Amino acid sequence: MEKPPFLIVEQLYEIAIEQVMQQIHSLALQTTLTFDLQEARHAHANCPCPRHGTEQCECQLVVILIYGDGPRPATLIAHGHEGKTWFSFVDAPQQHTGQSMETLLLRTLMPA
Fold first, then answer.
1. Would residue 85 count as lying in a domain?
2. Is there a domain that residue 106 lies in?
3. d(Cα 56, Cα 54) in Å, to the nearest integer?
């Protein structure tokens, strides 16, 4: 289950994702990009946008696993469209973000 966005930025997803990844790496945490909507769409001809149904999809959705000292990674979802990017955590029993990891990431990623 995806939590509501905790961060919405008025930036193209390429820029927003790069900035967030840099901030996460500054904490000495490791990341793995596990899904990229645009890459997945390239593998399928005539694949309309899953959200808007258009042929030329401008949406981006990436799933980033963030590894710290805990046994499980935090799962961060980034969704970009029309110059905005939304970031949220996944919180499911098999993908629960530990409270200390979530607090650390929120403190780091949220603007002052």
1. yes
2. no
3. 6
Q: Is residue 112 part of a domain?
A: no
pLDDT at 37: 78
How many domains, in total, are found in the chain?
A: 1
- C-alpha distance from residue 29 to each of 2, 23, 24 (Å): 22, 9, 6
Angle at 111 between CA 30 and CA 94, to 5 degrees: 40
pLDDT score, position 66: 94
How many other β-carbons are positioned within 10 Å of the β-carbon of residue 95?
Answer: 14
Q: Are strands 60-67 and 7-9 parallel, antiparallel or unpaired?
A: unpaired
The token duo for 90 is: 């996944």
Residue 101 lies in a domain: no
Query: Is 64:21 a contact under the CB 8 Å cutoff?
Result: yes
Tens of pLDDT, residues 13-50: 999 999 999 999 999 999 998 888 777 766 666 766 66
Residue 3: the pLDDT is: 86
Q: By percentage, how much of the chain surpasses pLDDT 90?
A: 47
Query: Could you give the maximum distance between any two Cα atoms of the chain, in Å?
Result: 43
